[in-house]
Specification:
Elements lengths: L15 H4 L10 H54 L9 H12 L6 H5 L3 H25 L18
Length: 161
C-alpha cells in the first residue's frame, strides 16, 4: 500500500486535515469489500444487542437498588405476564448457602454464578425440560376434564443450552 503525505510548507498550504485527500490507496478487491461489509453489518447488529443488554442491566439494577429482591420479584411477575410465561425460581442462594454451610462450614458469595456452570445444574435443567412437557399435557387434560388417565409421556431430547 502506498502512502504519500503532503506536508504543509506555508500558511497557504492545506493543513493536516486536508492531507488525507492526497493519500494514494489501492482500490479494495472484492474479497476485502465483502469482509468490510460483513464486519460492518455484524458490528451494527452488535450495537443493538449491546444497547438492549445495557438497558436490561440498568433497569434490573435500578429496580433492585430501589426495591431490593421484592422489586425484582415484581419485575419477574410483570415479565411473566407480558410474555405469557409461568416462571418459578428453581434454586435460591439461601438454599445453596444452607447446604454449603452445613456440609463445609463456609459461605461463598459467588455460589450462584458457580452453580450455573455445574453439571448438576445442567442435569436439573434437562429434567425440568422433560417434566415441563409431561405436565403441560397433564395440565391441559385436567383443564378439559380428560385427565382420568394421563397420556403416555414421550421424552424428547431437550434443546441445547
Amino acid at each position: 500500500m502506498l502512502n504519500r503525505w503532503r506536508t504543509p510548507m506555508s500558511d497557504d498550504d492545506p493543513g493536516p486535515e486536508d492531507a488525507l485527500d492526497d493519500v494514494d490507496l489501492p482500490q479494495p478487491n472484492r474479497e476485502e469489500l465483502v469482509n468490510f461489509i460483513s464486519e460492518f453489518m455484524a458490528s451494527s447488529m452488535n450495537v443493538g444487542q449491546v444497547y438492549r443488554s445495557h438497558l436490561v442491566e440498568t433497569v434490573a439494577a435500578r429496580v433492585y437498588d430501589e426495591f431490593g429482591q421484592d422489586g425484582l420479584c415484581d419485575l419477574m411477575m410483570k415479565i411473566d405476564e407480558r410474555a405469557n410465561w409461568i416462571s418459578d425460581i428453581l434454586i435460591e442462594q439461601p438454599d445453596l448457602d444452607d447446604v454449603m454451610f452445613k456440609r463445609h462450614g463456609i459461605y461463598d458469595h459467588e455460589i450462584v454464578e458457580k452453580a450455573r456452570k455445574t453439571e448438576s445444574m445442567l442435569e436439573l435443567n434437562q429434567k425440568i425440560w422433560r417434566l415441563r412437557k409431561k405436565y403441560s399435557r397433564m395440565i391441559v387434560d385436567e383443564i378439559f376434564g380428560t385427565g382420568d388417565a394421563p397420556a403416555p409421556v414421550v421424552l424428547e431430547e431437550p434443546p441445547p443450552v
